[in-house]
Amino acid sequence: MKKAIYIFVISILIISCSEKYNSPIQVDIASELEQELKDGRLLVIFSPDSTPEPRFGINDEVSSNQVFGMDFEGFEAGNPIILDPESFGYPIEQLKDFPKGEYYVQAFIQKYETFERADGHTVKLPMDQGEGRQWARAPKNIYSTPKKVLWDGENLSLTIDQEIPPVQEPEDTEYIKHIKIKSELLSKFWGRDMYLGAHVLIPKGFDQNPNQYYPLMVFHGHFPDDFGGFRTIPPDPELGEDDYSARFGIYGYAKLQQQEAYDFYQKWISPDFKRFIIIEIQHANPYYDDSYAVNSENLGPYGDAITYELIPFIEKQFRGIGEGWARFLYGGSTGGWEALAAQVFYPEEYNGCFAACPDPMDFRAYTTVNLYEDKNAYFLNGTFRKTPRVGKRNYLGHVSAMLKDMNHKELALGGDKSRSGDQFDIWQAVYSPVGNDGYPEPIWNKQTGEINPEVAAYWKENFDLRYIMERDWKKLGPKLEGKINIYCGDMDNYYLNNAVYLTEAFLEQTQDPYYAGEVAYGDRAEHCWNGDPSLPNYITRLRYNTMYLDKIEERLKSTAPSNFNQQNWTLTKN
């Protein structure tokens, strides 16, 4: 009875919300797209340009499109959705303050699914659909065809008539294989079947040498739709030098990327190249494009699932050696943090990590915030004024975004329950305890920036990697000796070098044992510098799979058993 009353009330709300909200924006749904729609988030996006589509133009920079967002529940077919005029917006927060003018407008709905988790909480979240939890590209999400309007602040009607199609899965090739397994650990936590996947690069001679077993390289990073940076044919001759990379400020970058991928293939099949397996993991989840590869109260036991379910499965199927001394970790940014975290939390399961430009590993430098001493994340507060805290810069130190703006973008896209699929929300989802409502407990008020010290204390004890190593060095030190390597540009765009400095200070004073690894910085290097001072970032970022091999070789010489073939990195089993 209560459920029926609830549905009735929601229906009345949707039907009559134009009177309740007195809103100028109404969104209709094409009848063929209504049937599977129940809960979700409505986004209304304004852009000064028609290309790219408005949904692809929301970012941290001053060039961002305008978006207003609103959650809804209990949608019933035949009813319009009316945007609440009090819905939070970014960059302009209130609809009443949005200037009149000519714009291209698009309505977008990110669908939520209901999860009845093993911890007793029921939550509504956007499920990954194979695209890597990218709301603007997620299959089953629906949107309107962009429409040019003269916005007068009074009346706007949009019709959602498009649906994003399913993702096409990549096919196996001679060297690249694709796997997906059901994780029993994650399925139990989420109350439904949950899967882990991986793209596997197998060595030359794999099929011809069935008694050879190989070391495993785990390349951590954001969601990969296929194995990247490996190409068996030369670069496309049609690619000209007029292709421009705005990120790196160079022409011909697409062709350069293809050339690097082809060069790697040629190395991979050469007779004197070491033989090993490389994997890129797919672990997208309802909060982000990957899980950060650790156990989390909100995401579930992804660390255990990857280490004890996925990796043993891969090693069994593709003849990995299957022991901790023969597994190595590397990656950049998110992947850099994951490489270090996996090494710290599973110290005997891996034999070394190479963490490039890692996400904050010391929360005294959580980008530009000290979570343990600062009261507010968005402002430096003085007696007579407050100054916005910076969030993003270039190698010259010129600031392009404030921390408040970056978080307000997420608040507009995903609301206050960590559902934006963006950076600060996933950190919060991974590191925070579960709140009373079943969603991540906020580290700070998303609108005002006021920090919650109790949540910060939880983060410290469970996910502050520098603190955990220092706290537990007596136990961890002997297991981590020689395994920790960290690289970061000293002008990282997101100030990630600050946490590296603090971590390095701890590592350099370690005793019994000394950590015996490496920390290095790139001079004036931005995100994501990964350890080679002789080449520019736009080259080295394409060489993760080869650039640490000399250091890995040294590690294997000192730790591998005598029957390991140091010439070609194989172990023969009868």
UniProtKB/TrEMBL annotation:
Pfam families recorded: Esterase (PF00756)
InterPro entries per UniProt: AB_hydrolase_fold, Esterase-like, Mycobacterial_A85_antigen
SUPFAM superfamilies membership: alpha/beta-Hydrolases
Protein name: Putative esterase
Organism: Algoriphagus ornithinivorans
